[in-house]
Structure formats: structure tokens, C-alpha cells
Amino acid sequence: MGKRLVILGAGESGVGTAILGVKKGFEVFVSDFGKIKETYKQVLLHHEIEWEEDGHSEKKILSADTVMKSPGIPDTAPIVVKLEKAGINVVSEIEFASQFTEAMIVGITGSNGKTTTATLTYALLERGGLNVGLAGNIGKSFAKQVAEDDFDQFVLELSSFQLDGIKSFAPHIAVLTNLSPDHLDRYDNDFQKYIASKFRIAMNQKEDDYFIYDADDEVLVEWLEKHPIRSQLLPFSNTKKLEKGAYINNEEIILTINNKNLTMPIASLGLQGKHNQKNAMAATTVATLLKIRKATIRECLESFQGVEHRLEKVLKINNVMYINDSKATNVNATFYALDSMETPTVWIVGGVDKGNDYGDLLPLVNEKVKAIVCLGVHSEKIIKAFGNVVDIMVETQSMQDAVNVAYKLSQRGDSVLLSPACASFDLFKNYEDRGRQFKEAVRNL
Fold it and tell me: Is 111 marked within a binding site?
């Protein structure tokens, strides 16, 4: 590998990669097409790393031996197209950093549930006494942690964009939580391309590695049958009895691996809902493979309360529960959210539509939703999809307005649910910003 490393994008993954690059003796140059956050600038200055913002100096970039491209930059960006034409190696942070660690890696991907599964897996391993780091699409940069910490294991939450930039990366344990159409705008509106991207997590795995997956996901199972992988398969299911892997029977999770058994009553899980049973089964399978004690696993599953912005209960006001599910950036995630509602619901939805098909939500909306508050730029499709099912639909352009309208439309015993089913980039920095604004608006009621 040549020694000139150019990094495109000076966010968390870019700056983390720069720190690791310097440590490993690379000549590093960081280039951001937009503005670099002040905090990241300070880090680059501290490490004496050359950087630029508000544009790309082509000559400097095309002189690279290796380019680390941040996941937010599409392959169609002009500078990336030029790099590919020049035959320059373009990789993701995950690919770059994984070459410099001996740590055992658990990689977790999927359309939904990956953050909860990754956070829960990390909690199980840490409580089990392992020296483990959590990175990828979550928390501190993987590359930065490889540079500065000496972990024995890493739990990585991986997006399809991060997996698109791998060449030799191979997690010892890979988890694929589920597949549903998402980010199709980045995959030529072709679901098959998106599925192939997710399955890259297993492409370099060997026979002594493991692949944990949802056996109830027809799309996933069908793809596996047509494109067999080398690693050992460990399925989990809510509906089928499995000889090995995890399944649910008589309100209990039953896990069997290498003649080891674990049972856990569903009622004692800290996280409720069918999707969370699956997240728990996936995380428990990882913990069992890594020999975490049964008692530790049970204790951790009982106490784990979930992640911010994922069906997070904010406040009860006038006997109305306000729930923040800002992390639901696609239809499938919102499906789970609506499915878990047990009271009449005022639903705040909308944002940047990523080619959504709202058809799957119709039965749930019909059953659970009393009013819809549209928030964001793409309201037309939502109004068209649900206009015949829901009597009250209101369009809003700010979180404050949306929450105020929802407050007026709700009655004692109702729930107000923010579950946008869309990306957040029209009115917010990201889904976290959207969730925090929701919580603030609720607290100000």
C-alpha cells in the first residue's frame, strides 16, 4: 500500500481515519467539499494534518495512493468518478482501519434494528467482562479507536454505504437483522443492488466464521439460497422452531448453539415488541458464541432500555404519551413503530422521501392512527397514500408546529408518535437533531 492517504469528508469517520493514517506513517491530506466543523478542525490542527474545505483540489487528491471516502459521499460524485477512472484505490473507513487491528470483529448490518442490536450486543459483551469497543455507524470513529485504544473485540454497526467501500474486510461474526427497501436513491432504485450491498458483510468470511440472520425475512432467505456463503449459518425466528440458532416457543426465547442451550422468558426482556425480540435473539447469539455466561446475558437483557430516538418514551402530558422514533428513516421501521402502538395515535410523519412505498402501512394506519401531522417537504405522497384512511391530516413546516398541532389533536389516553419514515435532511441536520427538537418541543408544551 502506497503511503499517500487522501480523505474525502472531514466528519467523524474522516477525521478518525486521518488520526490513524498519521499514526501508521501515511502522508495525510483531508478534503471536504463543504465546511468542516470547528471541533474537527481543531483535531486536524492538533495532529498537524493538512486539510481544505469548501471544495476539492483535484491535483492533490489524484496524487493519492489510497483514498478513504466518507459514507455520505455517493459513488457518482465527480471527484469519485475521476478517482475510479485513474485506478486509485477508494475504500471506506471500515476497510482502512480493519487492516490495523488484530481485534475480533462483530459486524452488524440490516435495514432496521442494527443500532439497537449493536448497542445491546456491546452491552452484553462489556458486562461479560470483555475488553470491547463499539463503533462504525455509531459513537466514536472505528479508525480513531483502532489508533488510540487497544480493544480485543469490536462491535461495528455497518451501513450499506460503509460496506460498499470494503475489499478485504471480514468480520468473524456477521449479523444481518433484516432487509427492506431503503436508500434506493443510492442504488438506482434497484432493491437487488441494495440487497447485494448488505450481503457484502459476508463476502470475505470463511468456514470458521458465523453469519446470524432473520430466518423469517423471505427476501433475505431467498437471496441466501441463490448466493450461498461460506460461513456457518445461525438463524433466528419468531415463528419457526430451529435446530440451531434462536427461536421463540411458549413465550420463551430458546437458543441452541454447539449443544449449548439458553432460555429466557419474553416477558422479562427490558425491550418489548416483536422486533426487539429479534434484536435480543441476534445479540444473545453473538454473546453465546463469545462464551458470555448465561446469568450475565439474562441480567443484561432484563435491564437494557434501548437507544435514543428509537421508540423512546419522552413524556406523558395530560395522559397522552409522546414517543420519539426519529430513527425510523424508512417505511419498514415505521411499520414496527405503528405495530407496537396500543392506543389511538396521532402520527407525525414526513421528511425527504427516499422512494417510499407506503402501501404496507395502510392496514396499520387504518387500525391505529386517528390523525396525521405531515412534517417536511414531501407531504404530497403521504396525503395521497392515507387521505382515504385518516380523516384529519395537517401539513406543518417546523417541529414546533408539528408538536403543537399534535397536542391539539390528541385526547386523554392517546399517543403522539414521531416516526417519520423519511430522511431528515430537509429541515434537520440528521435524525438525532430531529429527535432532539421533538423532545424539546414536547418539554415546552
Answer: yes
